[in-house]
């Protein structure tokens, strides 16, 4: 086996893992905090990427497109939470039907606006080159994605452990009723978390655009993987999404390289093994306290 | 201060509070006793807005609060020390305290970290421990301190003595008396008759969602048939 192939695979797996991390973190925290599986969460990833495409077409640069997509996804997230999901609180069946239905509707909206064919975002020009180190060629853009993913992780770590808002969200995951009984408007916290999670998913979509491309039904495929990440990593924590994302990303990429027809099966096997050993996921806490 | 009038609360289809009426005067401590399932915790949850009553009126400082959302009720000055403490396990002791810190609505006595640590020096030593690393007594102190940090005018305490050693229960009793002295009005739900009688100005006994007996601690302690009938003592 060629060492440079291996290194590039690892980098690709890491980059893919970071994208999965970005989409999964919102899903995980929303699930942990609000008890909602938002099956439309994958849509934020895809719509974010398509929006960035349109903004780029208008001549803006990649960073502007990224910013616009993230803001728009935050807004879409708040609207979905405030006007639709909020009616289904406490009713899991309704939540599943509502968010799943929404995912279908939005996938069709994508088809109407951007067409059904596979598209992709151009790699930003500043990063569109490779560096060769010790005879191994690294695509710079992937390195940048890994770097951004790590920065996001550090920011989330800071928010979670060093800010009052982070403490309130952790408390909400522990016992949201108690949080509201202490005078904190949990509805506002829900909306904020939803917006933030949607924006991060959008970010993942845009950064993934040059690597993965996008198609209208992509939301469903990415949702399945991010659900695995959430289950693997444990609910309600960015750490779980980070480690779970990297694990699933690596296993997917290496699976595709060595056992192409089995790559998704291996991911599910990984999930099954982790669940057997740690039913609440790698970083999940059991709610038995 | 707090008046309940003909309050009816349901859990799903079961009718728990069946016309509960009582009041807690300002700067007084009222203890609510009764067997398991009498509806004591539901009464607390109805006042705090966690299980809003279906009928009846709950007035706090001349204001109707039945049906308000929990955080609104808390912000009017109602502090909750819940059954089972419900400390946030993934927060440190200090975080448990600071997430709720708020100025009191009328700017009266303000509780802050320094003051609650003075009241509970043990918590200062445990400030950086996680909520789930505390003993039962420490958790109870933290639950009281956490409620104080919201600077309430009124304290709802749900079984503060539950599962605690007698020494600690005595300590909790002292704290309740001190808080009353500091100007708080308190409704305390208890199974522990002696604690209730040592802190309360008035005792109410609940059965099947209603008040069935009321009197002073002295009257209750003298009335063995009532204790036997409603409290199983």
Automatic annotation (TrEMBL), chain B:
<dbReference type="InterPro" id="IPR027417">
    <property type="entry name" value="P-loop_NTPase"/>
</dbReference>
<dbReference type="InterPro" id="IPR003593">
    <property type="entry name" value="AAA+_ATPase"/>
</dbReference>
<comment type="similarity">
    <text>Belongs to the ABC transporter superfamily.</text>
</comment>
<dbReference type="InterPro" id="IPR017871">
    <property type="entry name" value="ABC_transporter-like_CS"/>
</dbReference>
<keyword id="KW-0547">Nucleotide-binding</keyword>
<dbReference type="GO" id="GO:0016887">
    <property type="term" value="F:ATP hydrolysis activity"/>
</dbReference>
<dbReference type="InterPro" id="IPR052156">
    <property type="entry name" value="BCAA_Transport_ATP-bd_LivF"/>
</dbReference>
<dbReference type="GO" id="GO:0015658">
    <property type="term" value="F:branched-chain amino acid transmembrane transporter activity"/>
</dbReference>
<dbReference type="GO" id="GO:0005524">
    <property type="term" value="F:ATP binding"/>
</dbReference>
<keyword id="KW-0813">Transport</keyword>
<dbReference type="InterPro" id="IPR003439">
    <property type="entry name" value="ABC_transporter-like_ATP-bd"/>
</dbReference>
<keyword id="KW-0067">ATP-binding</keyword>
<protein>
    <submittedName>
        <fullName>ABC transporter ATP-binding protein</fullName>
    </submittedName>
</protein>
<keyword id="KW-0029">Amino-acid transport</keyword>
<feature type="domain" description="ABC transporter">
    <location>
        <begin position="2"/>
        <end position="233"/>
    </location>
</feature>
<dbReference type="GO" id="GO:0015807">
    <property type="term" value="P:L-amino acid transport"/>
</dbReference>
<dbReference type="Pfam" id="PF00005">
    <property type="entry name" value="ABC_tran"/>
</dbReference>
């Amino acid at each position: 086996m060629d060492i440079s192939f291996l290194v590039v695979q690892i980098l690709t797996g890491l980059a893919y893992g970071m994208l999965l991390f970005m989409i999964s973190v919102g899903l995980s925290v929303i699930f942990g905090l609000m008890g909602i599986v938002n099956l439309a969460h994958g849509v934020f990833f895809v719509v974010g990427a398509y929006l960035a495409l349109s903004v780029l077409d208008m001549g803006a640069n990649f960073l502007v497109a990224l910013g616009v997509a993230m803001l728009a996804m935050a807004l879409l997230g708040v609207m979905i939470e405030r006007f639709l999901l909020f009616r289904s609180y406490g009713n899991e069946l309704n939540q599943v039907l509502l968010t799943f239905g929404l995912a279908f509707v939005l996938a069709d909206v994508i088809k109407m606006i951007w067409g059904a064919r596979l598209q992709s975002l151009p790699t930003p020009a500043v990063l569109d080159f490779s560096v060769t180190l010790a005879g191994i060629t690294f695509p710079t853009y992937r390195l940048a994605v890994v770097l951004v993913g790590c920065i996001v992780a550090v920011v989330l770590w800071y928010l979670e452990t060093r800010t009052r808002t982070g403490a309130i969200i952790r408390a909400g995951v522990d016992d949201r009723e108690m949080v509201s009984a202490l005078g904190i408007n949990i509805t506002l916290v829900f909306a904020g978390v939803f917006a933030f999670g949607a924006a991060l998913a959008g970010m993942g979509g845009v950064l993934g655009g040059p690597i993965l491309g996008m198609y209208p039904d992509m939301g469903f495929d990415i949702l399945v993987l991010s659900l695995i990440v959430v289950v693997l990593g444990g609910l309600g924590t960015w750490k779980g999404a980070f480690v779970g994302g990297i694990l699933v990303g690596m296993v997917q990429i290496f699976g595709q390289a060595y056992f192409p027809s089995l790559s998704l099966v291996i991911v599910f096997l990984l999930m099954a093994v982790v669940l057997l050993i740690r039913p609440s996921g790698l970083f999940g806490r059991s709610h038995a306290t | 201060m707090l008046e309940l009038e003909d309050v009816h609360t349901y859990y799903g289809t079961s009718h728990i509070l069946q016309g509960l009426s009582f009041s807690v005067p300002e700067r007084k401590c009222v203890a609510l006793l009764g067997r398991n399932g009498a509806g004591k915790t539901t009464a607390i949850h109805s006042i705090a807005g966690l299980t809003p009553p279906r009928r009846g009126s709950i007035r706090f400082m001349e204001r109707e609060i039945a049906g308000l959302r929990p955080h609104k009720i808390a912000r009017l000055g109602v502090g909750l020390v819940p059954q089972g403490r419900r400390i946030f396990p993934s927060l440190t002791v200090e975080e448990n305290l600071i997430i709720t810190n708020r100025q009191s609505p009328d700017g009266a006595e303000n509780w802050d970290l320094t003051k609650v640590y003075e009241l509970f020096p043990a918590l200062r030593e445990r400030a950086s421990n996680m909520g789930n690393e505390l003993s039962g007594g420490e958790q109870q102190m933290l639950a009281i301190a956490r409620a104080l940090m919201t600077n309430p005018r009124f304290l709802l305490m749900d079984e503060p003595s539950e599962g605690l050693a007698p020494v600690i229960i005595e300590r909790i009793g002292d704290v309740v008396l001190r808080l009353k002295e500091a100007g708080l009005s308190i409704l305390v739900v208890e199974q522990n008759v002696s604690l209730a009688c040592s802190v309360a100005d008035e005792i109410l006994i609940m059965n099947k969602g209603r008040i069935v007996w009321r009197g002073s601690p002295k009257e209750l302690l003298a009335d063995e048939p009532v204790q036997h009938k409603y409290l199983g003592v």
